[in-house]
Amino acid sequence: MSLGYALYVTLVCTVFDWFGYGMYNMSLNEPVVTGALVGLLLGDIKTGITIGGTLQLVYLGVIGVGAAIPVNKTTATAVSVALCIVSKIEYETAIALAVPVAVMGQLSNMLAWTVNASLMHLGDKYAETADVKKMTNLTYIGSLIFFICKFIPVFLCIYLGSPFVSTLNDNMPAWITSWLKTVTGMLPALGFAMLFSMMYKPKYIPFFIIGFVLCAVFKGSLLAIAMLGLATALIYYFYSAMAGKAKNKGAN
Amino acid sequence: MTEMANKNVITLTKKEFFQPMWRITFFPMCTINYERFQTLQYFMAISPVLKKLWPNKEDLVSACKRHMAFFNTTPGLWLAFIMGISVATEEQAANSSDPQERADLLDSVNVVKASLMGPLAGIGDSLDATIRAIYGAIAASVAMSGSFFGAVIELICGNLYYVLLSYYTYQYGYNKGMTFLTDINKSGLLEKLMDCACIMGMMAVGALVPSWIGFNLNHDFLINGYTLNIQTALDSILPGIPPLLLTLLFAKLYSKKISSLKLVGIIFLVALVFSLIGF
Lengths: 252, 279
Description:
heterodimer; A: mainly alpha; 81% helix; flat; B: mainly alpha; two-stranded antiparallel sheet; 2 strands; disordered N terminus
């Protein structure tokens, strides 16, 4: 791969990642969007959409709570779509590659968070003289730091990684391919499980069962079941006011 | 000095009023760091208002220092809301003729920020994630059937949700501020909204489990000339049992504080075992 093309691919990957922290995310950092757009810019939309959709499900439950930085779904999506298209590897291998890349994205964010802390001290200094303009400029520098902290590792991944990944893919024994296929099938379960435990309360279990049966037995589409979910939530909203008040009276 | 301030009441124009909202909405996180998180960002967003409200250099210096205090909360859901309260308080203080009242108001700016960010973020992070997971899952399932429309759904829903929420909560914070919070606590509205989101979310997760986990026990066992396919046998009882068990198992492990990375490791191991057996 030529250096110029590697830089182009890296730029495509980094830009979407940048929207996660460096700017307003505009939903461009969601795997399904990142995947589709990286695919579009690298000339294979179909691959981008499929990988993006799968990774969206895998990372559905991954959220940043408080001060914890989660594994980075955007880096994972962008790099695995890019490698899948550039190195022409199997879809399952690309999904499996997303796992270490997501951790790399997390580490590079940690680096940016650490470097950015130094901006605070400059900010304190400028605050002494109320230099609002300089303080505002610091935020652009902060944004740039996020871009640089992403660009370098992603470039190394693409430039050094893609020939390596492509040879690996060509010499892949059949059992590894089938192993990765099973992994790809199982990974979304992790995303759903994290989402499940985030929302879990015993009182919500009936709704989980209803959703499951509607899909597994009655083969309803997700959109249709989500609509029924909305209806159920609205029923709860409108009819539970009285019950809640009666309960409060009883308690008092 | 006070008399002069009394005569010149500073009012914000419509453009000036919305500037902090747009700034915090479009740059919520870009200086986030381990020391003071979103602080610098918050200052940058509110700075045009501060400049207008505090023409006196000394006042502006103390305003700058005031907003360099630690701040961090959920973007989208609460950031604009708290910003609205801050702008309202700063404006009230700048136009107050009583020095004591002004000092009290200014003291309250950071107290309000600090007392709101923690509890609100605690509810906000999971409520926000639940809502985004619902349309995110729908977008993903459309995308996996190979349609570009999945990305379009995510873009439209994501942006509408985020920008509209900022727009309205900002004005709500500015107009109602603290009374809104006491109201919402009394009526239990927030808990109710959380319940509604979770009901929808749980039904969506329930529906996702059987269709999007590609894990089954499709393998023929030959026992004395009789073929047993575990998956077919299970399907005749209830379809989708293996993915259901898998999800519940991971949920159980995850709630026992086993990290997601370790769970990924477990997936790789379990998948290896299954693929070696020949499933």
